[in-house]
Amino acid sequence: MFYPGMRIKELRIKRGLSQENLAKKLGMNRVNISHYERGVITKIPSDVLAKLADIFGVSTDYLLGKTDDPSPSNNSDWDSKLPELTEKDEKDIAKDLQRIMDSLESQEGLMYDGEPMDEETKELIKISLENSMRLAKRIAKKKFTPKKYRK
Questions:
Q1: Which residues form the HTH cro/C1-type domain (predicted)?
Q2: CA distance 122 to 143
Q3: Which of 39, 53, 71, 122 is the most exposed place for a label (fewest CB within 10 A)?
Q4: pLDDT in tens, 82-113
């Protein structure tokens, strides 16, 4: 049976750290590290897992046994794998965004508790919609573009 403490112990020993040293880096008691490593505590708090992943230079998924790839996940990496938007895509997004904003304003959709929203709130909604539309367009391009046309 796998438990995260197995990987913690393995990584700690590889790095030449004692339980005491690791505990100091985490700001906790050595006994906690011992309990993690022996499987006495198998549910490690997420903030502790994140700190451990940083200390060891691995992903939290690796510590949890969800993957055998120890390389840390790079959240910005997924973004670089999506296709870029063309000028036509940008124009389509701008046109659709304007249509949505006009529709919301004409139907009193931009109200909260019967009161109209201020200009700053409207701008924040517009920015959020635009970012969502851009991401959706890029994901759709990746998903629906035939392989022979992908770069």
A1: 8-63
A2: 31
A3: 71
A4: 788 889 999 999 999 999 888 877 766 666 66
